[in-house]
Design brief:
The complex is a heterodimer of chains A (336) and B (106). Helix content of chain A is 25%, strand content 29%. With 336 residues, chain A is of the alpha/beta class. Chain A has two domains: 203 residues, 3-Layer(bba) Sandwich (FAD/NAD(P)-binding domain); 123 residues, FAD/NAD(P)-binding domain (3-Layer(bba) Sandwich), CATH 3.50.50.60. Chain B has a single domain, classed as Beta-grasp domain (Ubiquitin-like (UB roll), Roll). Helix content of chain B is 14%, strand content 25%. Chain B has two helices and five strands. The chains are: A alpha/beta (336), B alpha+beta (106).
Chain lengths: 336, 106
């Protein structure tokens, strides 16, 4: 069991900065995020986009902001549970919370800070009728363990970075054969990857099926059959061991919607006149996940909310102590 | 001056909403203001397809950027007349634009 002072749900910019503000008060933090890397939307949706409204930075690329936040919080040695979704929350008689992830990792702390942004990033699934019945055996929306595709004939669908990167990876590793199906003949992935994939297609390492999509699925003798239709209505039937539809991830509010918190329009209602506390004592919500009159979904507002929130977290964790605001210019950073 | 946009929602209900053209708004924002279930997850960068609409009128629209095209290409419900609402700025050109909100992508 992981014990800490503040469990932070969501490792986006606001969750990360909470570690810093808590660290100044000598509070330890542990972050849980469904994505395998820290950064939230900045990492998953727009890593290469410039942000212009971070104070002190006329412009900063989203992924660089994440790197800098990681550097800033390093002295406070945060713990991370990544690639796992916080699923259940329980409060014991002493007021401590236990948060358990989908993979069964158990965390406990007196305070929970939800910095969940838009929610949990879940794979976008193609709307095919029998997808649900075949997905367990044949379909992978995220590649977790590449080695399970050893000597397999795989088909990847999609035209973004993740589809291209995995097609290249499996053309070089493990797979017996790789086919890539894309609805268009343009790819939105990085130019280098696109060029490499086109070269591989010429060399026969990847078979590209462009301007086409999978419209239905069949199963026969431990194989999945993809029925593919092209833009000019030609159809073909492709036999394979596994299908990897990699159409990106989209956020859903997820299990925190069932934690007894007051929710309004997919966001958690908080008390913004005090400390961004929710209707459950000891649980706070900060950043894009919360809502109140006049809420602005801006990273810089989330940073402000984090600084205010940890003051109340401190009082909850150390009711006997009086905290006096100290300036980093005076005290410097004392890590732990 | 306000313009009118004709919106068909996912329950096939049609309504005309008005939108100002001097507020630097795009169609995704207008739909959100009128409480349509449009997420606009990426905030209007054409980096997600959560504001996908079908355009059923002949208004002059900005050309589709590579980024918008890529999002539409990867979207299951895309059709010839698909657009991302966040890429349609409110201007006189889009007065009486007739749109339909595309199914939610899963």
């Amino acid at each position: 069991m992981i014990k800490t002072d503040i469990i932070i749900i969501g490792a986006g910019p606001v969750g990360l900065f909470t570690v810093f503000e808590a660290g100044l008060l000598k509070l330890k933090c542990h972050l849980i995020d469904a994505l395998p890397i820290p950064g939230g939307q900045c990492a998953e949706i727009y890593p290469k986009k410039p942000i212009y409204d971070i104070p002190g930075y006329p412009t900063i690329q989203a992924s660089v902001l994440v790197d800098k936040l990681m550097e800033q919080i390093k002295p406070f040695s945060p713990g991370f549970t990544l690639g796992e979704t916080a699923e259940t929350l329980e409060k014991d008689k002493d007021g401590n919370f236990t948060v358990t992830t989908t993979q069964g990792t158990v965390h406990t702390a007196p305070v929970v800070a939800i910095a969940g942004g838009l929610g949990v990033f879940k794979p976008r699934k193609p709307p095919i009728e029998n997808l649900h019945t075949l997905e367990k055996k044949y379909i992978h929306y995220i590649v977790k363990e590449p080695s399970i595709f050893n000597k397999k004939n795989i088909v990847i669908s999609g035209g973004g970075d993740s589809a291209l990167d995995w097609a290249l990876y499996f053309a070089e590793n493990y797979a017996a054969s790789v086919k890539l199906i894309h609805r268009s003949d343009n790819f939105r992935a990085h130019n280098d990857s696109v060029q490499k994939a086109l070269n591989y297609a010429k060399e026969g390492k990847i078979e590209m099926i462009l301007n086409s999509e999978v419209y239905s699925l069949d199963e026969k003798e431990d194989n999945i059959f993809l029925n593919v239709r092209s833009k000019n209505k030609e159809t073909q039937n492709i036999k394979c061991d596994n299908w990897l539809p990699l159409f990106g991830l989209s956020p859903k509010i997820g299990p925190i919607g069932n934690w007894g918190l007051e929710i309004e329009k997919n966001a958690i209602k908080v008390n913004n006149s005090t400390d961004y506390s929710t209707n459950v004592d000891g649980i706070f919500a900060i950043g894009d996940v919360n809502t109140y009159d006049g809420k602005l979904k801006l990273i810089l507002c989330g940073f402000h909310e984090a600084a205010i929130m940890v003051q109340s977290a401190f009082k909850k964790i150390h009711p006997e102590k009086n905290n006096v605001l100290k300036y980093t210019t005076v005290t410097g950073i004392k890590g732990f | 001056m306000d313009i009118k946009i004709i919106v068909k929602d996912r329950n096939n209900e049609k309504k005309t909403v008005s939108a100002p053209i001097d507020m630097n708004l795009n169609l995704m924002e207008v739909l959100k203001i009128h409480n349509y279930p449009i997420e606009g997850t990426c905030g209007g960068m054409a980096l997600c397809a959560s504001c996908h609409v079908y355009v059923n009128s002949e208004n002059l629209l900005p050309t589709i950027s590579d980024s918008e095209q890529a999002m539409l290409d990867d979207n299951w419900d895309s059709k010839q007349n698909s657009r991302l609402a966040c890429q349609i700025p409110m201007s006189k050109d889009v007065d009486l634009l007739n749109i339909e909100i595309a199914p939610e992508s899963f």
